[in-house]
Write a structure and sequence with these properties.
420 residues, mainly alpha, Hypothetical protein af1432, 3 domains
């Protein structure tokens, strides 16, 4: 059975299980949650471009990771889900090593999560993908309803909020993709929980932490600790060299991309001028010049058209002609920040070791890095300005020269006809 067909069969099998074993109390660990985890797993797996077999392992594990809730105690749902997945794969004659990979991925989601390879990391991050999404508030509310329904106990709002805050602050995604993609929204969710907890504490609600029966400091003490940590982090940040902000990086990237695109457009325009006028010159030399002896009145118009095409080609070539620099820099240039290592023309004549040293020096100095990026954009702009200036001259020469040539041909034919 092909990978796509097997994944589709697993999805249909799991959907059937949810239909045949309805649990009204499972308002969170239901089919919708499973489908969201499958979607997240597919998104993460697509980023890492998994091979077919690895993709199959991840997707089957995502489909079955919570099916154990339908079969028994929630504390053993990973084991039950793994057993159900193995039963399904046996019926589809999936090789034993692949079955074991699926089981390991499901068991890795057991709290605290403990993945040992990329496939397990993807499934674990997909299971808790909502922690860094805008759906966190909604999913947290459903999780609370399910917990109260299953345990038969009411959980105070302040207690639930405090435990969720502890969980989010202690949670870390395993894949680099999720750490980058979900960081901003996860931090926003943590800030929302902190504001909510502070408001509930001010209202006088009792705080009771129920996770692992551990005693936790009061909210005010925790706030104080958090503030101290933030101060320490700020001091550490001040000691570390400043890195480019995301907005600044985006600005530099977009500006460089636009300059490169404009340069490519200029080269295309120059190529059009060169090709067009080369054809005109070929026609003049091969056809028209042979007839000038019989039509001397066309000599001046032909010369004007020929001169127009030649001058246009010259300026078009000048617009695309590359400039080669020395391609070398010295340590003094690096120390005084006088060279731009982002432009190949400044280092193509250097050895790899010297260039690597220069790049290391630049990356350790934010001012040097910013300065090099600014120089790179500036020089790209200067080159662009020169290109488009020459191109404008070439287009003007071609336009006016073509008009003058046509008028000259008309005048020569009408007013100076050849006498037989």
């Amino acid at each position: 059975m092909q990978t796509g067909s097997l994944i589709e069969a697993a999805g249909q099998y799991v959907k059937t299980q949810y239909q045949q074993h309805p649990h009204p109390n499972l308002v969170y660990h239901n089919l919708l949650h499973t489908q969201q985890v499958v979607q997240a797993a597919d998104q993460i797996a697509s980023h890492y471009r998994l091979q077919e077999q690895d993709l199959m392992v991840v997707m089957i594990a995502a489909w079955f990771h919570d099916t154990g809730y339908l079969m028994g105690q929630s504390k053993e749902h990973e084991e039950n889900g793994a057993a159900m997945a193995r039963e399904f794969m046996n019926s589809r004659q999936v090789p034993a090593p692949v079955q074991q990979q699926v089981v390991d991925c499901i068991m890795a989601t057991k709290m605290p999560q403990s993945p040992h390879n990329l496939l397990q990391e993807i499934v674990c991050d997909a299971d808790l993908f909502h922690l860094g999404s805008k759906h966190y508030k909604e999913r947290s509310k459903l999780m609370r309803q399910e917990t109260e329904a299953v345990t038969g106990q009411h959980i105070p709002g302040v207690t639930w909020t405090a435990n969720n805050l502890l969980f989010l602050e202690g949670h870390q995604y395993f894949t680099d993709y999720c750490r980058v993609l979900n960081k901003q929204q996860k931090d926003e969710n943590i800030r929302w929980l902190r504001r909510k907890l502070e408001k509930k504490s001010e209202d006088g609600e009792p705080l009771q932490i129920i996770h692992n029966n551990e005693a936790v400091a009061t909210h005010k003490e925790k706030d104080k600790k958090e503030k101290d940590k933030e101060k320490d982090k700020e001091q550490e940040k001040e000691k570390k060299p400043k890195k480019p902000d995301r907005g600044i990086e985006t600005m530099f990237r977009m500006t460089s991309t636009n300059h490169i695109r404009l340069s490519s457009m200029a080269d295309s325009k120059a190529h059009i001028m060169i090709s067009t006028n080369s054809i005109i010159i070929s026609i003049l030399l091969s056809v028209l010049l042979r007839k000038l002896e019989d039509n001397p009145n066309l000599i001046i118009p032909s010369f004007i058209l020929l001169a127009t095409s030649v001058v246009t080609i010259i300026y078009s070539v000048l617009a695309t002609r590359p400039n080669i620099t020395q391609g070398r820099f010295t340590r003094e240039d690096i120390e005084k920040k006088k060279t731009n290592l982002l432009f190949f023309g400044n280092f193509h004549g250097m050895g790899l070791e010297e260039y690597s040293w220069g790049m290391q020096q630049m990356m350790q100095d934010a001012d040097f890095l910013y300065g090099s990026m600014i120089q790179d954009i500036y020089h790209l702009g200067v080159v662009l300005g020169q290109k488009y200036r020459l191109l404008r001259i070439a287009y003007n020469i071609f336009m006016f020269g073509l008009i003058i040539s046509v008028m000259a041909f008309i005048i020569a034919v009408i007013f100076f006809p050849v006498k037989e």
